[in-house]
Amino acid sequence: MEQQDIDNLRLLMEFEAARSEPPRGFPKLPDLPAGRYADQRFYDLEKQHIWRKTWLFVGHIDQVPEPGSFMLWDNTGEPLVVVHDDDGMINTFYNTCRHRGAPVVTEPEGKKIRLTCIYHGWTYDLKGNLVSVRDPEDFHDIDLSCRGLKPVRTEMLGNLIFINFDESAQSLWEWLGPVADELAEFQFENCRLIGRQAFDIQCNWKIAMEANTEVYHIKGIHPLTVAPMIDDRRNVNSFYRNGHGRMVAPNKIVIDEREDDRTLFPNIETVGEIGRTCTQSYGIFPNWVSPLSHRALPPLLFWPTSINTTRFEVWTFCRDWGGGPMPEAYKNMWTSPDDTELSEVLQEDTTFGPWIQRSMESSGFQGVPLSYQEARIYHWNQWADRLIGIDDIPEELRVAQVIGDEWLAPNEPRLDQIGSNIAAS
Ligand code: FES
Ligand SMILES: [Fe+2]
To answer: Measured at the alpha carbon of residue 380, what is the angle toward residues 379 and 386, in degrees to the nearest 5?
Structure first.
């Protein structure tokens, strides 16, 4: 991060702490319709658009480390296989044999030279080309070249694998926009996988995610865990094109003095002052939330398994420890020591999910009034509607587009207000 950006963030933190109302010109946020969490029509629209048109985080290259390594993936409900090919590229295919639809791979992960469908023996190479069929003389003019595995677009952010079902989507880099540049200091190209666990939560995936998208809840549900660590009144939210967001709040206790696992991981030297002294968390649309620091890169991912259930994936990466096996002391920072439960902080964050879901489904609750501190949630919803197509959403389920583009980074109207406050004093 440039020094100018750091200086601006420090100014903005003081601005946030000193203000007695939302910033000038920041819109009042209309209530979010409860149906966005409980109406099957909205869930179906999400399925059709959000999960089909955006870049989705699939995994880390350590899961498919060598040519021939593969893993199954089905977090959007479609059967996929991710494959490391002989040229070092990561490819994703539907795990669907082009003959009669049997899986070409049945093990959750492993290593193969070729992908051979067991049903009738059709064989594909690691780039998905159909290279042989059994008894070809029994087919009339079968053209192997048009019967390869159907690919899904796959792009990398350093060592992280993302896919997009939309063949005409912009590149991952363009999709991330300025966020990609800001993430560079965290060296995703040098990160290793520490751990990945998944837990089921009984609520809509957005309810689970939103618990990690604002600091307004910290004093309420994290009085002894997060609240003593973070200066929430100095939190600065930023909004990016495509629905991405960022929060930056100064730490009351710096990370290197905390008694948690992050102090064990190698230092990422390129991370600047903000990453070292603040809690900095990015929301990458649609379902990635991650605090990032010079010690740990631990994304949380939220996947709908139905309208009111969520698969909650908790990941931890750190900078490469320099080869050899992973040091024994390293472990996922989001789980209990035996990895069977969520960490205390995440148990707090998920406490109310099932209760809130029941509220959203009841006739006692119609809409969610969001404060300025929770505006990233509204921003996400605005972009969700743009992606779905505003006119395709039933009127009672839409959100109004009230946060104008003048609030999108790199614009920063709050800095202009600080300038005019100084000029006026
Ligand atoms: S379904 Fe795969 S070879 Fe027949
Ligand atoms: Fe929280």
So the answer is: 90
Instruction: Give yes or no for residue 99 CB within 6 A of ligand 1.
Output: yes
Are the CB atoms for 273 and 251 separated by under 8 Å?
Answer: no
**Alpha helices (H) in 161-302, listed in sequence order:** 172-176, 178-183, 205-210, 218-221, 273-277
Shared domain for 233 and 90, answered yes or no, is no
Query: Which is the closest atom of ligand 1 to the Cα of 100?
Result: 1
Higher pLDDT, 156 or 253: 156
Q: What pairing do the DSSP bridges indicate for beta strands 288-292 and 300-306? A: antiparallel
49 lies in the same domain as 63: no
**Among all ligands shown, which has an atom nearest to the Cα of 347?**
2
Q: Is 90 in the pocket of ligand 1 (CB under 6 A)?
A: no
309 in Cβ contact with 203 (< 8 Å): yes
User: Cα of 78 to ligand 1 centre, how many Å?
Assistant: 18
Sheet holding 300-306, edge to edge: 191-201, 309-319, 300-306, 288-292, 278-284, 245-250, 236-239
Query: What mean pLDDT, rounded, does the chain reach?
Result: 96
Asked if residue 16 belongs to a domain, the reply is yes
pLDDT above 90 coverage of the chain, percent: 93
